[in-house]
Each structure stands twice: as structure tokens, then as C-alpha cells.
């Protein structure tokens, strides 16, 4: 294969097992991608058009769901094309770009969850100072950091990997994630060290901050009245659910590429699909159903058939 930059092709070798059912998988994944776009975009639009939702917590939720749309768009269009193609190939430069976007947006999710945790901490533990601390400027800075810091970290690894000779051209995966490292003849010390730094900065430290923050919130709310306890539970539970699910699949994604396993291809495919499928679909339902203000607007936009019938009878 041609080894010149931007003309090196790599093959995704996992499609062999599902070649017979490619059209079935295509329609299933297309339906799921459409569901992801529609559900996430609906809640982002609702937050955008209703001024009473222009609060830091809801702005962070909108940013998280927008991040989910971008995250999915990094994976699904190429995935759908591959289902319909005879050969699943991509250029190495395109593979590295997908790697960059996948981990940048993945890191941004943890940063956004950390920003939400801080917002809830200030709202519950320092309510009198909330509007002073959580100003528009503060929210804007948090959003810029959430997208810029992961991009800078992952860019170093992507650029570093682009200049290393390849000894393999078959990626054991459905897209270009950590598996790109298995293509390299040798991993440079820069990539290894910066990989550990990125892991700490983009995942471990935000997770520790979130756990510490919510622990503090529950301790403070436990010492106060039941109304504060209820408020803490209602607003913090959705964030915790999202954090737990994100953490589980993050650990899987990191470990599966670094540990040689004898898992059947089908098992690896299903588990890897969970990484790109679960969050983008579940997140809008968690926030849409658990956050009262958002749920209220959703019910107005999509009234139940019984409610429509009542309106007609009353008319």
C-alpha cells in the first residue's frame, strides 16, 4: 500500500462477520442515528426558544446534548457508508481525524458534566452567591474550556501518530478509536506520556471533581430541610446517571484497546457499539423526563392523545 502521507489506506476488518446482514444493520443504525439527531435537537431547541430555560444548568444541558449530536456525527455517517460498501477502507489521515474528534468530544462530555456539578454545588451550597458566581461570562468560559482543552490534548496525540511509520493496515474495530495505536510500528514516548496526561486531565480528574462535588452537595442538603434535599435529588440524579454510564463505557473503550483479549468479534462489535450508541440516545430521555421544566415544555409540544381529545371535547 502507498505509504505517502494522506494516501495511506487502512481497512476496518470487523465487517466480515456481518456482511450477509449489511442492509438490516444499515436500516437499524440509520433509524438510531435519526432518533439521536431528533431527540437531542428537540431538547436543545426547546432550551433555546424558552427564555425561562436560559439558566446555566439548562445551557450546560443543551451544550451536552449538542456535544452528543457532534459525537454521533463523527461516527455514524462513515459507519452507514461502510455498511453499504464492498470494502471498508479509509485513509489514515481521515482515520486520525475521526480519532481526534471522537476523543475530543468524549473529553468534552466529562468537562461539561463537571461544569454541571459545579453549577449544582453553587446553587445548593451557596444559593445567595449563585447569580454572582454563575454569570454569563463564567458559563461562557466553562463552555470554551470544555471544548478547547480536550481538543488541545488529543491534537498532540493525533499529530504525533501521523508521523510514525505503520506496520499494520487492519484496524480491529468499527471506527478509528484507540485501535489506531495497534497500527504503529512503535509508539513514541511522547504519545505514551501524553496519553497518560490526557487520560488524567480529560477523564480521571473531572470524574474525581464531580464525585467530590456531589458528595459535598449531599452532605450539605442532608443537614438542611426536606425541600433542599428534594431539590438536590431532582437536579443531581440525572447528572449522576449520565456520569455513571459515561464512566463505564469510557473504561471499556480505554481497556479494550490496551488489553489483548480473546473476545469473539461479535462481542467486541456489540460492546463498541454501546460506546457510541448508549449516551446519545439515553441522555435526552434522562434530561427530558427527569428535569421538570424541560419535561413541562415537552408535554406542551407533544401532548398526549388523551389531552388532544379533551381539548376537542371542550371546544
UniProtKB/TrEMBL annotation:
It is found in: Cell membrane. It is a multi-pass membrane protein. PANTHER family: G_PROTEIN_RECEP_F1_2 DOMAIN-CONTAINING PROTEIN, ODORANT RECEPTOR-RELATED. It holds the Pfam family 7tm_4. The chain crosses the membrane at residues 23-48, 57-76, 96-118, 139-160, 190-215, 236-257, 269-289. The lineage of its organism: Eukaryota, Metazoa, Chordata, Craniata, Vertebrata. Residues 39-287 form the G-protein coupled receptors family 1 profile domain. GO terms for cellular component: plasma membrane. GO terms for molecular function: G protein-coupled receptor activity; odorant binding; olfactory receptor activity. InterPro entries: GPCR1_Superfamily_Member, GPCR_Rhodpsn, GPCR_Rhodpsn_7TM, Olfact_rcpt. Keywords: Cell membrane, Disulfide bond, G-protein coupled receptor, Glycoprotein, Membrane, Olfaction, Receptor, Sensory transduction, Transducer, Transmembrane, Transmembrane helix. This is Olfactory receptor. It comes from Neolamprologus brichardi. Its main location: membrane. Belongs to the G-protein coupled receptor 1 family. PROSITE patterns: G_PROTEIN_RECEP_F1_1, G_PROTEIN_RECEP_F1_2.
